[in-house]
Design a protein that fits this description.
Blueprint: E1 6-11, E2 16-21, E3 27-32, H1 50-66, E4 74-79, H2 85-99, E5 104-106, H3 108-127, E6 134-139, E7 144-150, E8 153-160, H4 164-174, H5 181-193, H6 197-200, E9 207-211, H7 214-220, E10 227-230, H8 232-243, H9 247-254, H10 264-278, E11 282-286, H11 290-294, H12 302-318, H13 323-339, H14 341-344, H15 348-360, H16 372-382, H17 390-401, H18 413-416, H19 420-438, E12 447-455, E13 458-465, H20 470-479, H21 481-487, E14 490-497
Parallel strand pairs: 1-4, 4-5, 6-9, 9-11, 13-14
Antiparallel strand pairs: 1-2, 2-3, 6-7, 7-8, 10-11, 12-13
Length: 499
Amino acid sequence: MTKKYEGIILLRPDRLTLTIRDDQQAILTQVKSGALRVGDETVANYLENMGAITTNLTGFLRVLKEYAVKKSDVVFYGDLDDLDSVSAQYVADQIEVRVGLKIQWLNKNQLLAQTLAQTWPRLKHELGDQQLTGYVLCVGLSTSTLAYFNQGQFATCWDIDLGKARINQLAENLRQTTATPSDIITDFISSKLEYLVPELSGQPAPVLLVQGVETLAQRYITAPDVLAPVDTASFKRRFRRILSSSDQYIIHQYDVDEQSVDWVLPSYLVVRQTMKLLKARKLYVTSLAQPDGLLHYHTDHTPVRDLVTTAADNMAVRYGIDVYHKDFVTKVAMQLFDALAPIHRLDRHYRMLLELACKIDDIGNFINPQGHYRHSAYILEANPLIGISDEDNHIIAEVARYHSSEAPEINQHHYLELSDRLRLPIAQLAAILRVADSLDDSRQQKITEIGLKLKDDRLLIKAKATDDLVLEKWAFLRKNQLFTQVYGLQPELIVKGAK
C-alpha cells in the first residue's frame, strides 16, 4: 500500500517553511526559504515581499511533487502578526492567483496555543514532573508572550510588547542619539514587564522555558533532542559576549543571516530581564518552532482543545463567575445542542464555541450586573481566548451579548457588522444558551436531571427538581422567544418533583 504524504506550509514575516510528513506524522523533510525582509513600520511585510513569496512557493510545489504530495494534501497557513484584515485578504488573493494555493490565516493566539501544546508536555516529560509549575516565554518578532502553568496545567498568559524585531527598530533609532543603546533598551524591556510584577509576586522561584530564540537553541540542543537545560552562568557569559561583539562575529558564531543578526541581542535581553523578574531557578530552551506545532492544527488535537477550555475556565474564575451555575448551564446547553443537531446542522466546532460561551457568558457581572451581557461581549473582544481564531472569538462574544434579555435586531450596529454566514449560527447558539441559562435563573441548581424530546413543533424539556421553580419558569417563558423564532419550535418545561 502506497504511503500518503502531507505538506504543511507556514508563511511568517521573516520566512516560509515547508514540512512534509507521512501518515504516521513522522517528519520526512523540512525546507526553509531565504529571509524575507520585515517592515520598518509593521513587521509583516508580505505585500513588498510578494515576489519572493511566490518564487519560494513555486519551489515548494516542486518539492511536494517530488514526494508525490497532491495540492489537495497541502495545508497552507499564514501568520497574521500585525497584518490588517484588508491587507491579509489582498495577500491571500495574490497568492491564490499566482500559485493556486489558498492560505488560512492564524492569529498569534492560535500559534501560541500550538506552541504551548507541544513544549510544556515535553518539559514535564523531560523533568519527570507531571505537576510542574513554571513559565514558557515565546519570543516573537513583534510581540512576545509569557504563559504560566500551575501544577502541570495551563493557567494564564500575558502579551508583552517586546518582539525582537520591534526592539531592534528601537535600537536603530537610539543609535542615532546614543553610543550605548543597550542600557536604554534594558530599561524599555523592564518597563514592559513591570506591570506583571503584582501578578507574579509571591510565586515560587519557577522553571522558565524559552521558545523562539534560535541562537540559544543552537548552542544548547543537540539533535534529535528538541529541548535542553541552559546553565544560567553560561547564559550570562554568552550574553556579555554578544553585548560586546560585532555583527560579523555573531553571524559567524551563530549561523544567522544579515537581517536576523540584529535580533540576537534583543532576544537575549528579553530572556535576561524575564529571568530577573521571575527569579527563575532553572532555564530551559526548546527548538520546537511553529511549524512543529502546526502539524496537528487542522486535526482534533486534544492538548490544544484542553488548553482552550482551561483558558475559558480560568477566565471565569478571574471574573468571579458562579462555578456551579456555569457547569449547570454548560451541561444543559450541550444536551440541547446534541438534541437539536438534525435541525441546526452545526458541526462539532460550533459545539465547542457554545461550550466556551457557556463558561464565560457572565463575566460582565464583574463590571456591572446591569447590562452584564454587553459588558461580557466587550471584555471578550478586548481579551480574546487563546487557541481560537479572531472569528471564533467574535462569535463567542456575540453569543454572550445575546444570551440574556437582548435579542439580535436587524438595526443594531454590532448585528449589522456580522457577516451573513455568521448571523444564523450566532442566533442558534444564543437561543440554546438562553434556554439553558433560564433553567438556573435562581443560581441554586434546583434541577437535578433533564430529559429532552422533540414532538411535532415542540421541544419538551422534562426537568426533575428538588425545589419550586417559580423564578426559573418565569425566566424560561421570558427567554425562550428567540429559541422559537430561530428553531420554529415551542419549548415547554415539564417539571417532575417539587412544583
